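Quick one: structure for this chain?
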Amino acid sequence: MPKNTTKLGNQAEDLATDYLKRKGCKILERNFRNRFCEIDIIALKKDQIIFVEVKYRKSDQFGEPIYAITRDKMRRLTRAANFYLSENSEYFKLAPRIDIISISGELHSPQIEHLENCFR
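Got it. Here's what it folds into:
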């Protein structure tokens, strides 16, 4: 029986969304796609707009989730975030940042690690 990675990814993004809301963020978009890549979550908090990449792994057999983010993915996320800002001028004056939310373990009792402002 094949794994349903899309379903697991969506569940992990749901957890990340709930986590961000508890931290005072307003969720603007989920799964925003443009020609550069997909941004899992776009959120607002005070004077910042936050572009979030969510990574999930059930176990660390293949390494921690954060290590699945390549240099190319970082570059594409940055371009996608810049594109989003250019298309949504109401957010242009906000301080942008790119965060990673790493989720590991069973989804019913996950370990969540939030790395802020990863790509300066």
